[in-house]
Amino acid sequence: MRTYPLILILVIAATTVGAQELTLDAAVDAALVNNPEVMAARERAAAAAKRLDGGKSHRLPKIGLSESFVYTNNPAEVFALTLNQGRFDMEEFFLSDPNNPDPLSTFITTLDFELPIYTGGKLSARVGQAEAMATAEDYLFAHTREKVIFETMTAYVNLAKAREHRELLEKARSTTAENVRLAEKYAAEGLILDADVLQARVYLSEMDEFLTQATNGARLAEAALNFQMGADQTQPRALAPLSPAMPVVGDVDDWVAAAVEDRRDLAAARRKLDAGRLEEKAARPGYFPEIAVLGNYSLYDDKLFGSNGHNGSVMAVARINLLGGGTNTAARAAARHESASFEADIRRFEEGVRLEVRQAWLDLHTAGIRHTTAKSTLKAAEEAVRVRESRFRQGLDKMIDLLNAETGLREAEMRELIARYDVALDTNRLRYVSGSSLIDTTEDSK
């Protein structure tokens, strides 16, 4: 069996572990490929594009081919079909009884076409609607991508936060367990009361409960990240370290203005409004004529696909609806009211976006202040625990004093952890609700 130097084994192991770490960019890339929400939005955009192609095709001529069979002894039809077959014989016609002809079999092969010339603006309106809806679905697809990116980044940050929370509790639990051991030792030597030992054990039990909750929370956060990535929710993940949150520049009014301009879901709503406005044009009363060119070319014979007789025709057709009973007028009025309703919805949508951005901005500002305060509080709590531990070992403090100090430290660590991750989460939220690209943010962190 081949042996390897220890240093080589360590290098290979370190490389393997590094390769297993999931970076934020890799998580986002996986979500964009595998998340069903992105897939659904992509398919909706593709369907809208095909509907646009279908709408444009109505401007092209329609050509059809048909084959029919007629078996008749109707005098007029026999006369006409005999002419069409090219088999009419004048002498035979006068020698026969035209009122009682023999049955005639006729196969008719017809090639027909129709070309719209003018439809009173209806066709252009329908194509315009299809274009607006296709553009709207493209915007919604882009917004869905950003939404999935944001939710994946949020899940990634939440998992990192949950695991760091668990690590803090593991460290705190280890410290508490050591204090219990010291309390038991001091109680055996008669330096402290058994009640102090009992308090320490109760505190250790609480730490075990908190640690169990944190472990379960980390597992759930891991499942949530896998859910966003479209992966098996039980798949374990080793996360790469997070980069610091990108600083936010500009004031709140700049971010609000950018959101109203750049939000893709808002842009999609505006394009749908454009489509709704065109409905009034498409449904306007038929005071405008519809003009088309029609044509056909037919083959007639007494056998299938025969061509003993043939003829064709071309015609121009113009039609105008003089009275529709008010249906078109009602449809046009309904379209106008629906457009007005949608305009009001969009105004409310815009105001909602402004409010959402302001809230995200203020949340981020508050998180930054809380983090600064939490860091100062954490330093003070760490110093308090250090002093209490020293005094407890010297017999100058009671166990309850040390436990209270440790409780204060744990709470300070949690406040600092939550505030620090809230800065990252609120930064991403502000960029998302303002319509900024989150992919640029992740690329900047590489």
From TrEMBL:
Transferase as UniProt keyword: no
Taxonomy, superkingdom: Bacteria
Record-stated family: Belongs to the outer membrane factor (OMF) (TC 1.B.17) family.
Species for this entry: Candidatus Sulfomarinibacter kjeldsenii
Keywords (A to Z) from UniProt: Cell outer membrane, Membrane, Signal, Transmembrane, Transmembrane beta strand, Transport
PANTHER family xref list: OUTER MEMBRANE PROTEIN TOLC, SLR1270 PROTEIN
Protein's name in the database: TolC family protein
Residues in the signal sequence: 1-19
GO CC entries: cell outer membrane; efflux pump complex
Primary localisation category: membrane
Cell compartment(s), UniProt: Cell outer membrane
Keyword Transmembrane assigned: yes
Record InterPro entries: OMP_efflux, TolC-like
An annotated Gene Ontology molecular function: efflux transmembrane transporter activity
